[in-house]
Amino acid sequence: MRIETSISIEAPPPRVWDVLVDVERWHEWTRSISGITRLDDGDFRVGSRVRIKQPRFPPAFWRVTRLEAPAYMEWQAAAPLSRVIAGHRIEPEGSGSRVTLHIEQTGLMGFVGRYFANVSRAYVRMEAEGLKRRSEGG
After folding, report:
1. In the chain, how many domains are there?
2. Residues 56-100: pLDDT tens digits?
3. pTM over cut 0.85
4. C-alpha to C-alpha distance for 75 and 127, rounded to whole angstroms
5. ∠ Cα 103 41 57 (to 5°)
6. Quick check: helix, strand or coil at residue 30?
7. Around Cβ 117, how many Cβ atoms within 10 Å?
8. Within 10 Å of residue 99's Cβ, how many Cβ atoms?
9. Domain enclosing residue 118, as ranges
10. Dihedral, CA atoms, 124, 4, 91, 29, nearest 10 degrees?
11. What is the CATH number of the domain that holds 117?
12. What is the rounded CA–CA span in Å between residue 34 and residue 105?
């Protein structure tokens, strides 16, 4: 199962990128995250790990698998017989940015995820809208 949404943001890609990779503050700008904790120190990089708590879901452990500043971040959460991949793409659009977020659930999570598809769609949209507000200075 794959869910994707895009949004225009009136802020340049470097500004959006700075908000995106400041992951410990996500709970401040999206209701889809009730808690997030970095599990390592130093710069946010490939291999960085976080624990994310979302309403209606158990905590998940994510690991950054791609980081291409200021254009793309991808991380994955794995569980027995399943994998979830979330991507965050930032592209220039006029004087601002176009952000595309996607989440892909495979294996057992792809099957189970179909039951939670509406919640997952809502969370991806909340994240996009929250990223827009925070990046635009709200």
Report:
1. 1
2. 888 999 999 999 999 999 999 987 777 889 999 999 999 999 999
3. yes
4. 15
5. 35
6. coil
7. 12
8. 25
9. 2-135
10. 0
11. 3.30.530.20
12. 21
